[in-house]
Amino acid sequence: MLKDKVIVITGASRGIGEAIARACIDVGAKVALASRKQADLDRVVSTLPAERAIAIACHTGKAEEVDAMMARAVEHFGRVDGVVNNAATNPYFGPLIDTPDAAIDKTIEVNIRG
Length: 114
What we know:
Layout lengths: L5 E5 L4 H12 L3 E6 L2 H8 L7 E5 L5 H15 L4 E3 L16 H13 L1
Parallel strand pairs: 1-2, 1-4, 2-3
């Protein structure tokens, strides 16, 4: 079903996003891995088939970076067939009533807008 498809995966430098990328590769997809830190992405991509994976640093809460990420994926692979929007953040742990405004703003920026 994903054989030869091109999938962009955000939050792909570790954990669930990395596992999704590996699963996509395992069934024949090509993947563009995205996350904020290029070095973390490069570590993951170095363990994947070079012709089927690229790493693109991107902050998903910033529209211009998302546009650039998608353009780079299309430039590299010729198209994008799907996106796994796995990037998320939780900058505050505690009672909701005590959540600082900055943490709410960051959560909305990444988890909703991203």
